[in-house]
Design brief:
Length: 353
């Protein structure tokens, strides 16, 4: 009997890639996504890859009754993976209340429904941003949660703490918090990928949109940092490796081996690359030279962070398989595949739904 999982944020970037991986590993999936930051078309891409049509509940998870109705209708649900949240660091600085309301209210509603419908297995989309500017790198799961650099990061820290308290109050539940490093790249088929609604904030989509001509040049936000080439250091993790970590986390929860019912895992490659190295990796992987210039530092940027991923390797059996070259070639293939999707169509399909 296939285990049925609710994936919130299922039409989003990481959500859609995770649905593919879950389906390929014997799970049954339903999605809940109000498409405020994504397009339902992404599930068509999932169907092209897996041959499976996924039902999406177009629901605002900040509306408790609408959220509860999903659980009432799907009595076979045995687990939830919760991606649905806003994640633009800069926007969160300008609109902190929007982020606290959206990211935390939706989480509380999901936890309330898990409690009411006795759903025992939960995977939460967290982020390395909870480490702030770490004192020592690579960071392990025991590295302290430092002051969040943005309200977005604060919602991830608060979310973790809420789930820890929920786990304490509900010993029969089992939760995993996955701390993502920098997700990038796309499914090799190019049927799904990252689809920024407005101008992208993250480095790799900025690179690919520059290469395809949507953006004039990459602005490197500072090259005067205390790093090997002066630019920031990040741990770029391929979205398919990240997706598989969610499947392995669920498998782990159903196997019920660990002493704690709320566990944290870093999901990063363990390799730190600088912004300049990332730009040059794109150029060497794709043969496309990139226009870029050095600009001012971006407020809130962490100088350097990358993962110690020993725990995910040892406990989840997770091994990252995609390289930085794979990130660049798959991201570029995806960018080229959506080139002819006129901007207004991207927006219209997103607004129409
Ligand atoms: C990476 C590096 C920038 C754009 C954030 C969140 C994290 C996760 C991923 C959700 C930084 C530099 C970027 C550009 C640049 N969010 N950069 N020029 O800030 O590390 O992480 O997104 O899952 O939780 O905090 O990612 O890609 O924005 O930046 O120089 O045009 O690239 O300064 O050093 P970040 P990013």
């Amino acid at each position: 009997m296939r285990k049925q999982i609710l994936v919130t944020g299922g039409t989003g970037y990481i959500g859609s890639h995770t649905i593919v991986d879950l389906l390929e590993n014997g799970y049954e999936v339903i999605s809940a996504d109000n498409n405020s930051r994504s397009t339902p078309g992404m599930l068509e891409g999932v169907e092209k890859i897996t041959g499976k049509k996924i039902k999406n509940y177009k629901v605002d998870l900040c509306n408790f009754d609408e959220t509860r109705a999903i659980f009432e209708e799907n009595t076979a649900l045995v687990g939830v993976i919760h991606f649905a949240a806003y994640k633009a660091v800069g926007e969160s600085v300008e609109k902190p209340l929007l982020y606290f309301h959206n990211n935390l209210t939706s989480l509380i509603h999901i936890l309330r429904c898990m409690e009411e419908f006795s759903i025992q297995h939960f995977v939460f989309s967290s982020s390395c941003t909870v480490y702030g500017n770490p004192d020592a790198i690579p960071v392990t799961e025991e590295s302290p949660r430092k002051n969040a650099e943005s309200p977005y990061g604060l919602t991830k820290q608060m979310g973790e703490q809420m789930i820890e308290a929920f786990a304490q109050a509900h010993p029969s539940t089992r939760s995993v918090l996955l701390r993502y490093f920098n997700p990038a790249g796309a499914h090799p088929s190019a049927h799904i990928g990252e689809l920024p609604i407005d101008r992208p904030q993250n480095l790799v989509p900025v690179i690919t949109q520059t290469a395809i001509g949507k953006i004039k040049e990459v602005v490197v936000f500072g090259n005067d940092y205390p790093t090997r080439d002066g630019s920031c250091i990040r741990d770029m993790i391929h979205v398919c490796d990240l997706a598989h970590a969610h499947t392995l986390a669920l498998n782990h929860l159903f196997e019920k081996h660990s002493e704690s019912n709320c566990e944290v895992f870093n999901v990063g490659t363990g390799n730190g690359v600088t912004v300049m190295e990332t730009i040059h990796a794109f150029e060497s992987s794709t043969g496309h030279s990139l226009a870029y210039r050095i600009g001012q530092r971006r407020p809130g940027d962490v100088i350097a962070i990358y993962a110690n991923n020993d725990k995910a390797r040892e406990v989840l059996g997770w091994i990252p398989r995609y390289t930085l070259n794979d990130i660049m070639t798959t991201a570029w293939k995806w960018e080229q595949s959506i080139k002819d999707l006129p901007k207004h169509l991207e927006l219209r399909s997103h607004l129409l739904n």
